[in-house]
Amino acid sequence: MSVSASEFGTFQRRGFLNLLAAPALLSLSATALAGGQVEETLADSVQLVLRHAVSSDAPPKVGYEHFASTEDRLKFIRWKMEMSKRLSNRKSDLRTLQERDDFLQTLWWESKLSRLDIALVLGLIQVESNFRKYAVSSVGARGYMQVMPFWTRQIGDSDPSKLFHMQTNLRFGCVILRHYLNLERDDQFLALGRYNGSRGKSPYPDAVQGARRHWEFLG
Q1: Angle at which helices 118-129 and 203-212 pack, to 10 degrees?
Q2: Orientation angle between helical segments 188-196 and 118-129, nearest 10 degrees
Q3: Could you tell me if residue 131 is left (phi over 0), alpha (psi between -120 and 50 degrees) or otherwise beta?
Q4: What does residue 142 show for φ and ψ, rounded to 5 degrees?
Q5: Could you tell me the pTM of the whole model?
Q6: What is the sign of the dihedral through the CA atoms of 162, 163, 169 and 173?
Q7: Residue 156's CB: how many other CB atoms inside 10 A?
Q8: Is the separation of the CB atoms in 108 and 62 below 8 Å?
Q9: CA distance 63 to 73
Q10: At 75, is the secondary structure helix, strand, or coil?
């Protein structure tokens, strides 16, 4: 499911590749523990990059122009059909074919923007919310990817109600996960621990990786 050269150029112009910023740019001092994720002090440059990443344009209708070849586009279609079938077997908020199609297309787009393995993101969503759009944890984490409201203050417009909007929730969740992967130099075990607030402990990363296997697609 490759992204075309023209689309890659679009991402570059938008500044998404700034998410590759070195972890050294981050201030590592945590100021508070908010639910699962730690509310950390971000360097101004990192905060600017993350804010830009979550405020970009809505995804377009995915078409021929977003793929390097016809085979890549056909693989995307096969992936979407297979994932929709797997989702239909789960008790989730994605009950109709159209809801699943919109969700998967948006998730594909957001995962590509943040350079994430889409099976990993699906596994994380399964563990976090079991694909429930309006899920709220005991400490206030919201939506599919259980994003803590403090993130809307740090890098958004301070409106946590928007975390129940599908694309906004997936955008924040993917950007936050990429942020943690950058911080941990792509160590998934440690990055997933940060996402859950249990860095260095195995239950949460193991659960996500276990769920991830259900969403792998060989095409």
Answers
A1: 120
A2: 30
A3: left
A4: -125, 145
A5: 0.81
A6: positive
A7: 21
A8: yes
A9: 8
A10: helix
Residue bearing tokens 């909007």: 165
The residue to which tokens 């199609």 are assigned: 101
Tokens of 216: 């792998």
In tens, the pLDDT along 103-155 reads 999 999 999 989 999 999 999 999 999 999 999 988 889 999 999 999 999 99
Q: Token match 């972890």: residue?
A: 23
Pull the structure tokens for residue 92. Answer: 């989730």
The 10s digit of each residue's pLDDT in 140-197 is 899 999 999 999 999 988 999 999 999 999 999 999 999 999 999 999 999 999 999 8
Domains by residue range for the chain, with CATH: 5-215 (1.10.530)
Nearest to 180 by CA among 121, 122, 131, 123: 121
CB 30 within 8 A of CB 39: yes
Place of tokens 């929709």: 84
How many Cα atoms are found within 13 Å in the side-chain-facing hemisphere of 187?
Answer: 10
